[in-house]
Design a protein that fits this description.
12% strand; 178 residues; alpha/beta; binds shikimate-3-phosphate; Rossmann fold; 5-stranded parallel beta sheet; 7 helices; 5 strands
Length: 178
């Protein structure tokens, strides 16, 4: 059985599209924390931010993550800020192998602003907000991940194959550890 995979990374890094490919390749179920939050609250992420602010969103995000512990056979895509709480970082490791999908900031920015739906980038200067957030989070992604994949120059299938190879090798090493 393939290991459970947890994808972390900044907005626009491809967690959902690569996660769906990984789910297809492994036979696992694809789960997206943002989608679970939206289902639970029955409103969009922008509406949650508008009504209760980022804090309200983070509370629901934490509670959907906590409920996923113990679920096997999934590929989990997390929201870009799911790594901000230490409690969440611990939960992510309980859920599965934690993979950081990274890309060049220009690539991330272009993808993250497509569709114009991310509340944290609805500011007077989206690029400045993006750069500030990214630089405050990079070290957290790095410290949280079991490994990092740089995806700027790879297509989604190549990224998914690389993730699966590395995660399978790591999983085997862990199973073999005394
Ligand atoms: C967020 C990223 C979003 C979503 C919310 C907050 C963040 O998810 O969870 O808008 O704090 O970076 P994506 O990374 O899937 O865009």
């Amino acid at each position: 059985m393939h290991p459970t995979l947890v994808l972390i990374g900044f907005m626009g890094c491809g967690k959902s599209s690569i996660g769906r490919r990984l789910a297809y390749m492994t036979g696992h179920r694809f789960v997206d924390t943002d989608e679970l939050v939206v289902q639970r609250e029955d409103c969009t992420i922008s509406e949650i931010f508008a009504l209760g602010g980022e804090q309200a969103f983070r509370e629901v995000e934490h509670s959907v993550l906590a409920e996923l512990v113990g679920t096997i056979g999934i590929v989990l895509a997390t929201g870009g800020g799911a790594i901000l709480r230490e409690a969440n970082r611990n939960l992510l490791h309980e859920i599965g192998i934690v993979v950081w999908l990274d890309a060049h900031p220009d690539v991330l920015f272009e993808r993250a602003t497509r569709g114009n739906r991310r509340p944290l980038l609805q500011t007077a200067n989206p690029r400045e907000s993006f750069d500030t957030l990214l630089s405050s989070r990079r070290s957290i992604y790095e410290a949280t991940a079991d490994f990092r994949i740089e995806s700027s120059y790879l297509d989604h299938d190549e990224v998914a194959r690389t993730v699966l190879e590395k995660a399978t090798a790591l999983h085997a090493t862990r199973l073999a550890a005394p």
